[in-house]
Amino acid sequence: MKPDRRKEEVALLNNIHENLPSLTQLFDACSDHWGYYDPVYRFYHKSYKVYALQEVTKTIVAKLLSLAPGRELSVWFETIIREGTGKTFVPEHNEKWLLHTRPIVEAFFHARYFLEMAVKCGEELRSPPEPMPSNWAALLSLYGLR
């Protein structure tokens, strides 16, 4: 591993440790009944309430960005987030429900996944590990460090 890459990994993990209480609180909020079970159910129920997932998705993404100031996130991740946010419900969306709402749920799932990986790494890792577990490798991929 290049020394500058190692330095960035250490900085990322330090930022995760410093933010672990707020990361955990956010993860808990998007993992409980109202933050996870109900909104996903709303997708299957064809309820406009699924659109509310966009706000928590944006909150998660902002938190993830704050962990590595100046770094861009994965292009694939950014595409998923862009396609799953910024949508406003109109009744015509009911006619093509999956087209309009599946990207919202997908963006939430991906954002929540990376938030969960940050929490797990913050709880389990004291320094960037070798060999690299999947949760740490995933985060490094998100931040373009792998």
Structure, explained:
α5 (97-124) packs across α6 (134-142). The termini are close together. The longest helix is centred in the last third of the chain and has 28 residues, at 97-124. With 146 residues, this protein is mainly alpha-helical. The mean pLDDT is 96. The chain has one domain (3-142). It is elongated. It has helices at 3-29, 33-44, 53-66, 75-83, 97-124, 134-142.
List the keywords.
146 residues, mainly alpha
Radius of gyration: 16 Å
Shape: elongated
Low-confidence stretches: none
Strand content: under 5%
What would you call the structural class? mainly alpha
What letter string, H or E per element, gives the SSE order?
HHHHHH
The total of beta strands comes to: 0
Distance between the termini: 10 Å
Biggest sheet features: none
Summarize the amount of helix as a percent range: 55-70%
Task: Provide mean pLDDT, rounded.
Answer: 96
Overall domain count: 1
Please, how many helices? 6
How would you concisely characterize the structure shown here?
The chain is mostly helical and 146 residues long. Helix content is 68%, strand content 0%. The mean pLDDT is 96.
Lay out the secondary structure.
Elements: H1 3-29, H2 33-44, H3 53-66, H4 75-83, H5 97-124, H6 134-142
Helix pairs in contact: 1-5, 3-5, 4-5, 5-6
